[in-house]
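User: Please predict structures.

Assistant: First:
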Amino acid sequence: MAHPLSGANLATLRSVFTDAGPADDKGAALAIWAAAYARWPSTALERQFVRLPAPDRDGPPLFVLGHWRSGTTHLYNLLAAGGWGYVPPIEVGLPHDARGLARLLRPMLERQLPETRWIDRIPVTPTAPQEDEIGIANMSPLSFYHGIYFPRHFDRLIDRGLFFDGCGPHDIAAWQSDLRVFLAKIAAGQNRRLAIKNPVYTARPAMLRAMFPGAKFIHIHRNPVDVFLSMRNFYARLLEVMALQHVPDDLDIDGTILRVYDRMMNTFSAQTEDWAEPDLVELPYAELDAAPMDALARIYDTLELPGFAAAAPAFEGHLAAVKSFEKNRFATDPLVARKLADAWGRWFTHFGYPLPSVEPEGAKAQREAQA
């Protein structure tokens, strides 16, 4: 289980390795295939005999949307502490075996969890809420993570996994079926209304709304400067530990970040243009960071969600527990400021953030010459 793709089934592995392989890390690839073959009887039995409830049996899901590094994890952890159903780590790692083999192996698997997430210092415990995308990557060839696993096809697989580029109706219908099955397995194990956090879903709110009538949506956004700088670290760390192929020397991470953010925000804005309360609430990360209880109260009030008073002590307890957590901090520079002002200027304005300060062309050279 060293690599996240070790939880995939044989059909998914055949699809992604045929499309994007071979792997340069032969040892990791062999372990991934061996794990799938070893689990095949369990996977087949669970698919054939385990009966699952509807994923929205306990009520339409609450979806936490927002570009990566915008505060989605902090908000999701709070909601889970307050009693919402959530996606646990073991189910993410073994989605095909979540109701059978994973339950039997849970004590052993929990001992193997990393102490913290790879991209930051957020603890990973057996009850730490997770986004579902790694689980979906183990069930479907349509996932953002396949671009990270197979970086020779980075942009193509990123765009297919985020925006369904090049996918036909059958591909999309199969992804929707996989999502329903995954969420049904989560619902079966918790008997609570689900909250689901996945930045990928920021690019498909209309589809989720059609799949789950009555679903509620929170969109959290953050100063784009902080998002950009943190995304550089995000990709660097994930490619370092997850890539099964050598990362191309000419991989333009900055270009991918700039392009994906702009397209994701365009898509989200277009699809939610006519949405109103109580279906959607927009939340600046700074508001959640500065006054979390007020932000949570506004979420519950805007979306007409019951139970805030009952959940408030649990929210406060979680906030007290993470009070000393130190966020990653990254320095910016004039070149980054110019990139962001040029590429994302409209989004700074749209979300109410000040444009980054941009030096005139040649100012740096002039300062150096004067020194």
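Second:
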Amino acid sequence: MFMLDIPDAPQQQSVVIVAQANQSKNSLKAIRTTGVCQVVPNYPQAEVLGLHMLEPAVSARNYFWNFENLDISTEGSDFKFVQMPKHGKLIDEGDGIYSFRPDVGFFGNDSAIADVRIGTYQVKVVYFFQSVNAVVGDNWIEKYCGDKGYQWKISLPNSPIDAVALQLLIGNAGIVSTVNVEIADLPSGAIGQTTGTTITLDDNAAGYDWFIDSTPSLNEEWLPTSNPNEWVAKAGSAAYGKMDMLSVLLHEYGHALGIEHSADQYDFMGTTLTAGVRRLPSAEELALMQQLISDAKVEMASVSTTDSNTDPTQLP
């Protein structure tokens, strides 16, 4: 569990609101949200292939077919992109089709969001791009997209937290899909806890509200401190005076991987966190987490293989 740290110094105060973090419960229920995994080859001389293409209206239709058992025509649908990728461009190919062209030399995660309307329905389609320096084979979904597959349902019912922003943060932080993230009203002072492979975040960060960072690798809202793995929020930034969700997620993710609390209060596995502070794993701790993830995947693959080879007549 991660607790709120209440130091002697007064807490930072901020009037900056995290974008889209205060949507009403009803609006989150009314607007469907779906994630799409899009792996894009970006090696030199890579051709523009079907992997580069996205059709928001078709993605919305597939959502209804796959998750609500509704067969809805895309005729008369329209859409607009409300978030563009930061490391590439979306090129209009005509007939509602776009291609994602990542910047030359960029390899990593990017995203785009489209608001789609089909009749009276509205679907927010979140594309999670992975630009890779490789030829993508036929097994790219299993290799790059994890257990969620090519498309999945994003849903955080009865929560004031923006589901899309949280999913973007989870994806960009590298948190594997086998870990579930939920929102609840935790006991006083608690901002996060982990039970098994389920992470639960407090709905309002113990009253401080969350800073949900859509670009967690850039640290543009933060200033360095004497601790190379700890930053403080810039005055007037969206992070100022708020609890950093990235810090809490990675702390709880450590628990999900089996890492215990640290006696060092400045370590990312320390028991408390102050509003307006970002605390991240060191290079060594990141390496440990990656190894634990790799071990977990090998173990899951082994269990899956064992199950598939089991003679059902031998089951009790």
